[in-house]
Design brief:
single chain; alpha/beta; Rossmann fold; 7-stranded mixed sheet; 6-stranded parallel sheet; 25 helices; 20% strand
């Protein structure tokens, strides 16, 4: 009797098999009663992932967001409806019975070979629940709580390979071959109308000929046949679908229509689909052992789960990982993401005990706001490291043509990563540099690093890279340095970074590393070694990992000039110490670990609400849009900002020079004079602003000269702004741009006329928590100036935080705002607030 382990922990009994039958052959029992894939009423009696109950709509057309209820778990003896809910019982809501459209049909989950022996399955009628607060709203099918359905994709008990081939080099051949070579633990069904057997397995002409219900179907047939194949799989009771085939949205034209039909099939049959245009999925768990890809190299088992949007890149990543000795728990190539998205996999892998680290190659986020919500929750539990392509405009266009999806601005992508704690790697190489560090070493408690080296040059390079990424050299305790002085070579430098020189022995190196790791002022260490001919690199490697395991601090190593295949590298990595080809790689990886450790400690903050005058803001914007204008007038911009509580300077609008004096007296001297008109945007560059005017004569003379020189440039002067002169503030910029993919994102930085040259800015994607807003302020390089340096007073950063939050609320409420620059915003001393001096607000143009 063959006993396997179910995912829910209990043993699964299977009938005896003849020893001469191949282990992957599906044995058909002619005496077993077969359950139809669909009942007469349209409900489906089979095909939900094992372990817990799964709810379907009564008409079996769509899955909705829901929570598991107290009666959703069922044992293999049949479903239990609980003491107050028997099978078939009608649930009453208030004084009426719920109708069929308001009910869920809850189906117990069984293995496909077990479930087909049951002639009948009782149903349990349950009341439909509303989605939890904060959950993804039911709207887009792929955005539903799809994680339950992914169980059929990653842990199927049976797989049909539709398009399996007998010819090497064909995708259908390679996928079936990989499943067999990696000893997939379920039952395989090759489907090919022109073959009786493939790889020693009985082949079926059509999915409908398979005697059992199937968990997962892998489709490799041409695109014009793929939709029909998916429908046949759904009719056979499949729950998961991996569509390898290309020729859908990414090619445009008929591909768009073909993908829409494929998604419709998934809706109607409640299929969870990966792809199309993907390279497959992998699960290395010993109870599954599924490599359903056409990659030439089988992956090692490990604690990393990888999701990639590029199939070709996925193959290269799997190859590279094996050379590094990096193993995977799961792998998924998403392809076009027609249904299952990155967000769905993050939710699933967050709760997956086999997944310790999540890696991602991302071309676009799909739904960025959902990504922010889901990624934030995921990174609090486990690290997520991503490579995001499309940094340049050309790269973004290439990504769009690759997958048929827009990538959006890279500045907005940076804001997403900063807010969610996702670590962005600059390249695939750096992705694995980070992954090795996270998978092999503990997180550092702080950013104080000690370096032990036998050469000065590499140590200095390492120091530079550490400092550039927010780390600092540890100050070694005098006792630590004194201890090393008792045995170190006379040529050695015992100040951090420690340089033992080539004269240092193997024992010197080991003792130095142990000494710095024992120092309470050290949070982590980097061991750099240039192996001389007289010392075996394996001996050095052994000394490093043996010393590292005696301490709870992270240790990273750089064996300069040694490849991933060198004996020293293999010795280190196989014993849990990551090693890098260059010292900069070790420094960046350690810095990434520290950033993540700090993020996990960080309070996420809260979303604030403000009393605002939305009606006033709506009126201003509607009037400007109705008049066909592309930007707000200065007085409208001030009124719009004031409606959301953003403070602006006292301003009077004057159309004639002779009225300037009265306006200045109302405000009080000194004043600021600005000319305005349709072409006058950057006032400083056009000499259309004058500060600190103290007399009426000075005011009139300045206005006359300003008007004359602007008209000489053929610029229209519609009038003047007379504003209060705010003194003593520090100039910053607050801005906003609306991205075609991400929506509005905010910009903050050191302001004034030099903002475009200094480029000291940070970004945020609304909705922002108070902590997000403060992070934007603190993350610019010149933040210490805001806190007060060289006798300068500290500025009111709390009021500035409030301004950022209010601006985020404003641009989130009104899609008609395309761009906004508040520059400068004068941040006054602590307790005095801020004042937006100049505002430029550009309106979105209606699509034609």
């Amino acid at each position: 009797m063959d006993t396997r382990i179910r995912q829910d922990g209990g043993p699964r009994q299977e009938r005896e098999r003849s020893p001469q039958i191949h282990r992957h052959v599906a044995v058909h029992d002619p005496d077993a009663k077969r359950i139809p894939a669909r009942g007469a009423d349209g409900t489906r009696p089979i095909g939900s992932p094992r372990g817990t109950g799964r709810a379907y709509r009564g008409d079996a057309t769509r899955r909705e967001t829901q929570d598991r209820g107290p009666h959703d778990n069922h044992e293999e003896d049949g479903p239990s409806a609980g003491p107050s809910m028997r099978a078939g019982m009608r649930v009453h809501h208030g004084n009426r019975a719920l109708n069929e459209a308001e009910c869920w049909v809850v189906i117990p989950r069984f293995s496909s070979r077990y479930i087909r022996r049951r002639a009948r399955l009782p149903s349990v009628i349950m009341q439909r629940r509303a989605p939890r607060e904060g959950s993804i709203p039911p709207g887009r099918f792929a955005a539903k709580m799809i994680g339950v359905g992914l169980d059929a994709v990653f842990s199927p008990r049976s797989i049909a390979v539709v398009g399996a081939s007998r010819h090497p080099g064909k995708i259908g051949y390679e996928i079936l071959r990989n499943l067999i070579l990696n000893e997939y633990q379920g039952v395989l069904y090759p489907v090919n109308p022109n073959a009786r057997s493939i790889h020693g397995l009985r082949a079926y002409a059509n999915v409908r000929d398979i005697p059992d219900a199937i968990d997962l179907a892998i489709i490799t047939v041409p695109a014009d046949l793929a939709v029909r194949a998916a429908e046949e799989c759904g009719g056979q009771g499949a729950r998961g679908l991996v569509v390898i085939t290309a020729g859908f949205r990414e090619v445009g034209g008929i591909g768009l229509e073909r993908e829409a039909r494929l998604v419709d099939v998934c809706r109607r049959y409640d299929l969870t689909m990966i792809g199309p245009n993907c390279m497959g999925v992998i699960n290395t768990h010993p109870d599954v052992r599924m490599d359903a890809t056409f990659a030439p190299t089988p992956p090692l088992r490990g604690g990393i789960s990888l999701v990639t949007q590029s199939g070709a890149l996925g193959i290269a990543i799997l190859e590279h990982a094996k050379t590094l000795g990096v193993g995977f728990a799961k792998f998924c190539s998403l392809g076009n993401k027609a249904q299952v998205s990155l967000n769905d996999l993050l939710q699933m892998w967050r709760g997956d005990p086999d997944t310790k680290i999540i890696l991602a190659y991302i071309e676009n986020f799909g739904n960025p706001k959902n990504f922010v919500q889901i990624a934030r929750a995921t990174t609090k539990d486990k690290p997520v490291i991503a490579v995001k392509s499309g940094r340049s405009e050309a790269g973004s266009r290439a990504a769009a043509s690759h997958t048929g999806s827009l990538g959006g601005s890279d500045l907005a992508a940076e804001a997403v990563f900063a807010q969610t704690g996702v670590l962005r790697a600059a390249s695939i190489e750096e992705l694995f540099d980070f992954a090795m560090a996270f998978s092999l070493q503990p997180l550092p408690r702080g950013n104080r690093v000690a370096i032990v080296s036998d050469a000065g040059g590499p140590a200095i390079m390492c120091v530079d890279e550490l400092v550039a990424h927010g780390m600092r050299l540890a100050d070694l305790a005098p006792a630590t340095q004194a201890f090393m002085g008792t045995w170190a070579p006379p040529e050695a430098s015992l100040r951090n970074p420690i340089d033992l020189t080539p004269q240092g022995s193997l024992e010197d190196y080991r003792r130095a590393l142990d000494a710095v790791l024992s120092d309470d002022g050290v949070d982590a260490a980097i061991a750099i070694y240039v192996p001389p001919v007289r010392v075996d690199e394996v001996d050095i490697a052994r000394a490093v990992w043996q010393t590292a395991k005696d301490h709870s601090k992270p240790v990273l190593c750089n064996f300069l000039g040694r490849s991933e295949n060198s004996p020293g590298f293999v010795e280190l990595v196989s014993h849990g110490v990551p090693s890098y080809l260059f010292p900069e790689s070790a420094a960046r990886s350690l810095a990434a670990m520290y950033r993540y450790a700090e993020y996990r400690k960080r309070d996420e903050g809260e979303l604030r609400t403000f009393p605002v005058n939305r009606t006033q803001a709506q009126t201003i914007l509607d009037r400007a849009v109705g008049e066909g204008r592309s930007r707000l007038r200065d007085e409208e911009a001030d009124a719009l900002l004031n409606a959301y509580g953003i403070r602006t300077t006292k301003t009077r609008i004057v159309r004639r020079i002779e009225d300037l004096s009265r306006a200045a007296k109302e405000i009080g001297y000194p004043v600021v004079l600005k000319a305005f008109g349709p072409e006058i945007v950057h006032k400083s560059e056009l000499q259309a602003v004058r500060l600190g005017i103290r007399t009426e004569k000075e005011l009139v003379d300045a206005a006359s000269a300003m008007e004359r020189q602007l008209r000489d440039r053929r610029l229209t002067v519609e009038g003047f702004l007379v504003q209060e002169f705010v003194q003593g503030g520090m100039e910053v910029i607050l801005g906003m741009a609306r991205d075609k993919v991400y929506g509005p994102f905010l910009v903050f930085g050191l302001g004034g006329i030099y903002v475009e040259y200094l480029k000291d800015v940070s970004f945020g994607l609304p909705p922002l928590t108070d902590r997000d807003a403060m992070r934007m302020i603190e993350s610019i390089r010149t933040y210490p100036i805001l806190r007060g340096v060289r006798g300068e007073p500290a500025r009111d950063v709390t009021a500035l935080q409030d301004a950022i939050l209010r601006l985020g609320a404003l641009v989130s409420d009104f899609d008609s705002i395309q761009e906004m620059d508040l520059n400068p915003v004068l941040v006054l001393e602590e307790g005095r607030g801020y004042c937006a001096v100049d505002a430029r607000i550009i309106l979105a143009q209606p699509s034609s």
